[in-house]
Amino acid sequence: MRRIYLDNAATTRLDPEVLEAMLPYLREEYGNASSVHSFGQRARAAVEEARVRVAELIGADPSEIIFTSGGTESDNLAIKGIADAYGHVGRHILTSQIEHPAVLESCRALERRGFEVTYLPVSSDGLVRVEDVREALRPDTILVSIMLANNEIGTIQPIREIAELLARVRAERRQPHPYLHTDAVQAVGKIPVWVRELGVDLLTFSAHKIHGPKGVGALYLRRGVRIVRQMDGGHHERDRRSGTENVPAIVGFGRAAELTRAQLDQRIPHMRALRDRLERGIEERIPFVHLNGHREHRVPHICNFSFQFVEGEALMIRLDLRGVAVSTGAACSSGSLEPSHVLLALGRPRDLVQGSVRFSLSKDTTPEEIEYVLKVLPEEVERLRAMSPQYLELTTARRG
């Protein structure tokens, strides 16, 4: 049976060139990057070379890159690190209702410590309104954390406009805060992301979303912004993140960043064309479907549909039996019985939320794979709908 992977928002296939770059550091170049002997110094050189490549991907200075274990740790370090560094001047944080759990749970942890968090609503297509940010700002707001691209629906947020708003507020108040953090895990490698143009102070991204290895990510921290490290131990990463560096993974991250930067202009139209073909085919061949998210302001690799009269989990399983891997939401929420908080925030009815499926593409997705999905998907939707009394009643009434 052929296997088709359309869950690239969860993780991507490791690029063979990335694996080749990592192998020496899994075998003969096994030194600790903090050791002073030659083994360690070769490992340190590899880490710093990778830091340059990762920084170049987002237009940052290498000194502004902190290596972490992934997007979740980067989000935690950004939000809690700012709170601990600037909590003496303010204890209010702004975020949105559709953030990744790594952001939402970090904010909830801070609430238990006495911080106040405002969770901004979004429009029906998933956009945070800049005016809502403006109205929610307070003199004691120290951080605004809004994701660049949503991991379930792909909507791109107006981060640059929010950054401009915060810059005006800082100038008027003559203070360095509130700072702006964005979770860009689903944006980096899918659209051009330049930290200077965005105007952000902190930015989160991860290797395994751009065909790099799992277990390594990065936090961009603008020069001059201070955070408090969240793990006690050594003085790694310029005393901002303790722990022995994962040298093979960091090297792989650097190579993945290098390849992504070189190929981005080809990857974007490739993914967008196939996503558009998939969406057209679904809407042409399957009735009672609803696209979730913004049709224009979105990343090119994600589309999320609600299939009326269908349980999304059942459809995901049926597609897997036909060789097609998709998801019903964020991988970090897999196994949860709760409906998607993102789709609920969009105002979708609960039955539509529970009938949602996310399709996410990559540079490796092919036109033939999309055509196969468009063949089997309508068949499986119809099979599941045949077990729905509401659907049978509706279709019977229509025929009558």
Descriptive notes:
α1 runs antiparallel to α9 and α9 packs across α13. 49% of the residues are buried. The chain has two domains: 4-11 and 264-399, Alpha-Beta Complex (Aspartate Aminotransferase, domain 1); 16-260, Type I PLP-dependent aspartate aminotransferase-like (Major domain) (Aspartate Aminotransferase, domain 2), CATH 3.40.640. The protein has helices at 16-26, 38-58, 71-86, 101-111, 130-136, 159-173, 195-198, 236-239, 247-285, 312-321, 341-345, 350-354, 367-385, 389-399; strands at residues 4-5, 65-68, 92-96, 116-120, 141-145, 179-183, 202-206, 217-221, 289-292, 302-307, 324-325, 356-360. The strands form three sheets. It has a seven-stranded mixed β-sheet with strand order 2-8-7-6-5-3-4, with helices on both faces. A three-stranded antiparallel β-sheet has the order 9-10-12. Strands 1-11 form a two-stranded parallel ribbon. The model has no long low-confidence stretch (mean pLDDT 96). The protein is built from 14 helices and twelve strands. It is an alpha/beta fold and 400 residues long. The protein is 44% helix and 13% strand. α7 links the parallel β6 and β7 (202-206). The protein is globular, with a radius of gyration of 22 Å.
Please describe the topology of this protein.
Elements: E1 4-5, H1 16-26, H2 38-58, E2 65-68, H3 71-86, E3 92-96, H4 101-111, E4 116-120, H5 130-136, E5 141-145, H6 159-173, E6 179-183, H7 195-198, E7 202-206, E8 217-221, H8 236-239, H9 247-285, E9 289-292, E10 302-307, H10 312-321, E11 324-325, H11 341-345, H12 350-354, E12 356-360, H13 367-385, H14 389-399
Parallel strand pairs: 1-11, 3-4, 3-5, 5-6, 6-7
Antiparallel strand pairs: 2-8, 7-8, 9-10, 10-12
Helix pairs in contact: 1-9, 2-9, 3-4, 9-13, 10-13
